[in-house]
Amino acid sequence: MTLLEIDALHVNIGAKEILKGINLDVDAGETHVLLGPNASGKTTLIMTLVGYPLYKITKGSIRFNGTEINKKPINERAKLGISVAFQTPPEIRGVKMRDIIRLSAGLEPWNPFKEPKETFATPLLSNIGLDPDVFRDRDVNVGFSGGEKKRSEIAQVFAMKPKLMILDEPDSGVDIDSLKRIGTAVSKYAKENNCAVIVVTHYRHILPYIKPDVAHLMCGGIIVVTGDPYEIFSKIEEKGYCAYVDVCPPAVKALLEKTGDQR
Amino acid sequence: MPKIPEWRRKIIERAEKVKNQPAKIGPDIDLEAFNSELPEQKSVSNPAELPSTVKSGANVVGIEPSEKLRSGTFFQYDHSVMLARAIKSFPGVEVMSTSDALKKYDWLKEYWWKTVPVDQDKYTAIAELNQTHGYFIRTKPDTRLTLPIQACLFIGTQGAMQCPHNLIIAEENSELHIITGCTTHPSVTRGLHVGISEFYVKKGATITFTMIHGWAPNVEVRPRTGAIIEENGTFLNNYICFKPVKTLQMYPTAYCEGENSRARYHSLLYGSEGSLLDVGNRAVLRAKGARSEVTTRAIAKDHSRIIARGHLVGEAPETKAHLDCRGLLLSPNAIIHSIPELEAKVEGTDMSHEAAVGKIQEDQLLYLMARGLSEEQATALIVRGFLDPEVPGLPDQLRMEVRRIVQLTTEKAL
User: With an 8 Å Cβ cutoff, is B411 touching chain A?
Assistant: First the structure.
């Protein structure tokens, strides 16, 4: 059975329609890449999947594991197995890394009286290259570098044992070392757990690590083209997003042409 | 009737003059409405012998009936001192009722109302005119106590007025830790607590004082507190108020009299139901190298109101002080009002403040919900994180203990 089925999805922010009929199926174990120029609707699609209340579904449906989740609140979707690594997560003062990781797994916050040495969050932190002795007791995202934030997000996502991982630009603002570490860890987790992955990215650098099956180019709130990730990236790198003007419906054409040679 | 000494008589005269004078801040209270004729309680030989409702109530405000991790206990029920002792294995520390101490030590007249003026307002006046014990805790020179003395001021009778006067003295190069819990019997909804606390931190000494208030919705509370800190002395004051109270108004003041003396206040205020918490902290820096930090974390829910005041006074050069207040509103009907004041009287005093008051940010809530937490769990987590009782300066074991008590008490409140 298809894990995630998005059918003719229309989404508004306020009165403005952002997504204008998205169709997308993702099977368990598949890795999909979403790309497209700024304001093409990638983040809207992700936040709608996660269930942020700002994004209102006006038409169409999202089914996860055979159940429609259009109206399910964020935390219920998380419990069903949808987990997101945010592009710019908020700082939460006073909430410790070890505790958010434990809570993500449905555990209690760390209690030194019950468990003298923390044993759950510690390996998850070191697995993603965050020194547990430093990060266990740090406040979530407070004073983290770009790369540390991305790694922290991945540690939390893994703790949730998701069936679908959604990674919003895990490669933006990180050095090559973080990129490799994050990409490799994600692909390993996905393989071992038959987990589906949706990755939003502007760059091809992460592709060799996450080994995507398919890429979708978004523009103007629709998916313009679906195909081999390397082929699509190569074509955009060569000619810009305009390369796909020919396959666009008329309404989106103008938008894509306007991007000029934005790549 | 024993004869009242001359020095005390003068103090009583000063108190008489202001016995109807309202405080400068906070709602006025009709003192006549409270009862000061209260039944005497039998004393006990250790805290485990206290009646079980009293014991469990006191436990919630940090009083350990087994005296585990404590070096002594003082227990006052209404007007009766039921227990006052230091555990034998801790020599160099004295714990007794202040009435006994005044009889025993003539020199205590040099400490009586020296950090708080007796004629400040009608509350200081009533506390003198109607004084009912309080604790005297003193560490002798060079005594380093690592485990805290616990002290409980317990209101056991409906409508009672309790006026203890506490004297805490850490002699030169000594170290003293106190955990004080103040609470009421479960059957008590109404009462008045006017507690006077005077702290003397001598040269090179340290006092850490952790006070936990767990009152009832119709209890009025007017503590009056002062501290004098000598050269190289440190005074750390933790205050936690986590249960509803009718009105609470206090403005403890630390006078950093000696060079390189230090005063630190850390307050966790949790306002709920119709509580009014008007809590200030004042530090007066009077000698070179004196420092002070004042941090307040205020959470207001229901239709509670919290006024978080702070006042730093720089009277000597090469002094430094900082005020930090954060407030979190959990209800549209609650109010948090932060009033920081910086008063520099000389050049070379460095004073600053920061304050941030607002609601829980929605992006933080949604973020935690995306990790599978319900909205209630996410709110509780943010609130708990906000109240993080990490207070630098406490010895490890005591820090863990304070943390445990704070977690226990805030857990109940949340």
Answer: no
The Cα of A90 is separated from the nearest Cα of chain B by a number of Å equal to 6
What is the number of domains present in chain A? Answer: 1
Contact assessment for residue A155 and residue A101, using Cβ atoms and an 8 Å cutoff: yes
CATH of the domain at A194: 3.40.50.300
- Let me know if residue A106 belongs to a domain: no
- Let me know if residue A211 belongs to a domain: yes
pLDDT per residue over B335-348, tens digit each? 999 999 999 999 99
Q: Among candidates B230, B223, B159, which has minimal Cα distance to B196?
A: B223
Low-confidence residues in chain A, pLDDT < 70: 259-263
CB A3 within 8 A of CB A203: no
Listed by number, the residues of chain A in 95-124 with a beta carbon closer than 8 Å to a beta carbon of chain B are 95-96, 99-100, 103-104, 106, 109, 112-113
Cα B41 off chain centre by: 25
Rounded-to-integer distance, Cα B91 and Cα B95, Å: 11
Residue B147 to chain A, least CA–CA distance (Å): 19
pLDDT of B1 strictly over 60 = no
- The residues near B336 (Cβ < 8 Å, ≥ 6 apart) are B271, B298, B300, B305, B306, B308, B327, B328, B329, B357
Question: How many CB atoms within 10 Å of residue B42?
Answer: 8
**Structural domain contains residue A147:** no
Residue B124 has which token pair?
Answer: 């200081």
In Å, how far is A107's CA from the nearest CA of chain B?
A: 11
Q: Look at residue A150 and tell me if it is in a domain.
A: no
Q: Which residue range(s) make up the domain with A168?
A: 4-88+163-258
Residue carrying structure tokens 């979190």? B328
Q: Which residues have a Cβ under 8 Å from the Cβ of B215 and sit 6 or more positions away?
A: B182, B183, B184, B193, B221, B241, B243, B244, B245, B248
> Is B152 within 8 Å of B63 (Cβ atoms)?
yes
The reported pTM is 0.81
Q: Do A99 and B381 touch (CB under 8 A)?
A: yes
